[in-house]
Amino acid sequence: GGPRPLPGQEVSVKVLGALEDGGLVERDPRLIFVPGHGDVVQALELGVPTMQPGEVSFFLAAFPYAYGRPGSREPDVPPEAPLLFEVTLLEVRDGPDPQPLPPAVRLRLGSQRRERGNFHFARADFAAALRSYRLSLRALDGPTTAPPGPEEEEELREQRVKCLNNCAAAELKLGRAEEALASCEAALRICPDNGRALLRRGQLLAEQGRDAEAALVLRRALELDPANKVIHTELSRLAKRQSPPSNT
After folding, report:
1. What's the CA gap between 233 and 206, in Å, rounded?
2. How far apart are CA 160 and CA 136, in angstroms?
3. What is the C-alpha separation between 42 and 64, in angstroms, rounded?
4. Which residues make Cβ contacts (< 8 Å) with residue 139, sequence separation at least 6?
């Protein structure tokens, strides 16, 4: 009884997940998530909002809605495995407002959501990956209960840079070149010598015809990684484009 979950509301569910042979791979007596945030497999994202509190449902999920073509190590799910989920909707409540959390909790939450984004990216679900990466950034940038120590501060910076680079990769897959460039530049504001962000920014500037800027960025990337063949190729392409045509 009671209304189904609305967008943005938080749910608590009891979950059992089993393979076709009956082997149990998931057991969580109280899994808490917000549907649409990409923190759980798509079968639960899509299925739980159709339920009412107290309802028990069975969802037979083909592998694209479970752990995808590669499967999973934790939980131990074979490649391309369909799963049967038994789900009990325990509670529905309004989504929590952002609360100050200890730096260690923010790091753990940010890492979990980035890994979830990597899971979606590997499945070529780039929109879901981007959503998870942005949620990871929100966790990393949120208020903390106490100032982070030097090691925590450094780890927060590293996680933000990783997330921004991942955002840029997903945005490129979605054809959002301007957003990808903005993500690269945000990463470089945190870490000016991040090679991955420098290379991708140089490539994006070259695609926009901003060859002089692109060459500067790529040369800096080459200073940091002289053996990188991709950077050499990009600079050679720029040099050929800028050289005058032959009279032959």
Report:
1. 12
2. 8
3. 8
4. 106, 109, 110, 113
Q: How far is CA 98 from the centre of its chain?
A: 19
Edge-to-edge strand ranges of the sheet holding 56-61 = 24-33, 10-18, 83-93, 56-61
Q: Is the pTM of this model over 0.85?
A: no
Which residues is 17 bridged to in the sheet? Answer: 26, 85
**Rounded distance between C-alpha atoms, residue 216 and residue 187, angstroms:** 17
Q: What is the CB-side half-sphere exposure of residue 78 using CA atoms within 13 A? A: 9
Cite the DSSP H helix spans in 61-149: 103-122, 126-141
Contact call for residues 107 and 137 (beta carbons, < 8 A): no
Query: Which residue reads 């509670």 in tokens?
Result: 91
The DSSP H or E segment spanning 86 is strand 83-93
Residue 27, amino acid? R
pLDDT digits (tens, 9 = 90+) for 128-147: 889 889 989 988 988 888 88
User: What average pLDDT does the segment 17-41 reach?
Assistant: 88
Domains defined along the chain, listed by start? 10-93 (3.10.50.40), 103-233 (1.25.40.10)
